[in-house]
Design goal:
This protein is α+β, with helices and mostly antiparallel strands. The protein folds into 2 domains: 252 residues, no CATH class; 120 residues, Conserved hypothetical protein from pyrococcus furiosus pfu- 392566-001, domain 2 (2-Layer Sandwich). Helix content is 30%, strand content 25%. It contains 13 helices and 21 strands. Strands 1, 4, 5, 6, 8, 9, 10, 11 and 12 form a 9-stranded mixed β-sheet that branches. A 6-stranded antiparallel β-sheet has the order 15-17-16-19-14-18, sandwiched between helices. A hairpin with a 5-residue loop joins β9 and β10. The two termini are 18 Å apart.
Length: 407
């Protein structure tokens, strides 16, 4: 079976696309989703976060939530807000945010290739989050949240996608956050064949964001026992050239200095880093460089080159900071479970780090240089796992632009 294939997408009719598209299910909590969907009866949040249509104390994992999600999806179909494509197609999806543009292919990717790591991973998953997505897929008989994938940029594939964008899009909407979502249908057989064959010749594609969605799709496929060619044997994906992906910094804040004074902290840090006092917020200029904010003062930390190993995981900036500062000096050995550390996406800016320290909520903050796509792919190629909170991708894919029905 091919690595990717076209599919008959379930998508909003063009005149209602702006009413439907919504942020991904996992970037809003229930209260935020309820507020965003207020006065918007066709928002996809009524499907992806259906607890907003139930009493406010409803557990998001209650069976009633999945049942309501299915009811809401049926209503959008019955009302003619959503339509099903009459043939298998690919789609081209362009995101534009603050001058950054990326153009990718919407397809369904092979579960079998995911299972053998041709669709490569770089994160662990949590069973509870997988269970949630499995129940959602089963209730809807559809995958509604696309997995964000990347392929190593290839001029011929990139050129095909770019050529599609010269035609008229079926959807072109700008969301509340200013991100522009533009969507084209690829329904001619020759282009479909070129894309299928071109991707099938690739050694691998890479999960950027959506490990739980892809893992849950694999679980659902096994329960359906398909022959490898059923809709359930593929999962909804948007695949971008790696050199167009936009990874932001993913910063750290810690509640205390592990019993150290600021001067003692700086003294210990100097064993592994050069330390320079800075007058303004420190946005690291490259790998191996970090900002630190403590007691109203910014410092630039540069790790000793001799401490950077030749290893795809240990050489990551998130690993270097953890291995040479956060664990040995601040005493945090497991950032997945230790409540003393929190993580701040770079979309919030360095001012958020200052705010959380100045408020007294946190004692120290660290700014990092963004992980590169090349580093992510190297980890995945080595069949290794990145530390938690290593990447923050922007802009986010919208939910509701297209879904994959499993019948």
């Amino acid at each position: 079976m091919p690595l990717i294939r076209p599919f008959a997408g379930l998508r909003p009719v063009p005149e209602h696309a702006a009413d439907v598209v919504a942020p991904p299910y996992d970037v809003l909590n229930s209260a935020e989703a309820r507020e965003r969907a207020k006065g918007r009866p066709w928002s996809f949040l009524h499907i992806s976060k259906a607890e907003i249509d139930l009493p406010e104390d409803t557990d998001p994992y209650d069976p009633a939530v999945y049942a309501r999600s299915a009811e809401n999806l049926k209503k959008l179909l019955d009302d003619g807000i959503l339509m099903r494509e009459d043939k298998d197609c690919y789609y081209v999806y362009r995101l534009i945010m603050k001058g950054h543009s990326q153009t990718g292919l919407v397809a369904v990717a092979s579960v079998a290739d995911y299972d053998i790591n041709r669709v490569r991973k770089h994160e662990y998953t949590r069973p509870a989050k997988e269970d949630d997505r499995v129940r959602q897929i089963e209730a809807l008989n559809a995958q509604t949240g696309p997995v964000l994938l990347a392929y190593k940029s290839q001029p011929d594939m990139d050129a095909i996608l770019e050529a599609v964008t010269k035609s008229e899009p079926v959807v072109d909407v700008t969301a509340d956050d200013g991100v522009q979502h533009t969507f084209w249908v690829v329904d001619d057989d020759e282009t479909i064949s070129q894309l299928t064959n071109g991707f099938d010749a690739m050694q691998a594609i890479y999960i950027a964001d959506g490990h739980h969605r892809s893992a849950s799709a694999s679980r659902v496929a096994k329960t359906k026992g398909g022959d490898g060619n059923q809709n359930s044997d593929y999962f909804l994906s948007v695949i971008y050239p790696h050199n167009q992906m936009n990874i932001l910094d993913y910063n750290r804040v810690v509640t205390d200095l592990n019993g150290l004074s600021k001067d003692e902290l700086l003294s210990e840090i100097e064993a592994s880093f050069t330390v320079a006092t800075e007058d303004a917020a420190v946005k690291p200029g490259g790998p191996g460089e970090f900002g630190m904010y403590v007691e109203g003062q910014w410092y630039r930390l540069t790790i000793s080159p001799a401490l950077i190993p030749d290893d795809p995981v240990a050489s990551l900036d998130v690993s270097l900071l953890a291995d040479h500062l956060i664990e040995p000096i601040l005493g945090i050995s497991d950032p997945r479970t230790d409540s003393r550390i929190d993580f701040v996406g770079g979309i919030r800016g360095l001012g958020e780090l200052e705010k959380r320290v100045d408020s007294g909520e946190m004692a120290v903050a660290f700014s990092l240089f963004p992980t590169s796509m090349e580093a992510l792919m190297a980890v995945a190629d080595a069949n290794e796992v990145m530390p938690p909170k290593s990447t923050w991708f922007e802009p986010k894919l919208a939910d509701g632009l297209v879904s994959h029905v499993l019948d």
